[in-house]
Design goal:
about 15% helix, 6-stranded antiparallel sheet, 2 helices, mainly beta, 6 strands
Length: about 80
């Protein structure tokens, strides 16, 4: 779901995470606001496409806000 700050979309808020899902395995939690994937800002139109592009990546980063704190999660696909 889009997350708004000052009337502007500032990422995508995670409303739920299914146990055992890929999102769960990546360590993403309910309430996280996903802001960037591989440095590219998330928005409503681009969000799903960016996640689909990860299928061909060997590594990637996700920038998010959790509990008011900015974090960068780094992953390597083996």
């Amino acid at each position: 779901m889009p997350h708004f700050q000052a009337g502007k979309v500032m990422g995508m808020k995670v409303l739920s995470v299914n146990p055992g899902s890929l999102i769960n395995k990546l360590g993403i939690r309910r309430g996280d606001v996903l802001q960037k994937i591989n440095g590219q800002e998330l928005d409503v139109k681009r969000g799903i496409a960016l996640f689909n592009e990860l299928k061909s990546q060997r590594s990637f980063t996700i920038d998010l806000t959790r509990g008011g704190e900015n974090k960068t999660l780094e992953y390597e696909i083996r």
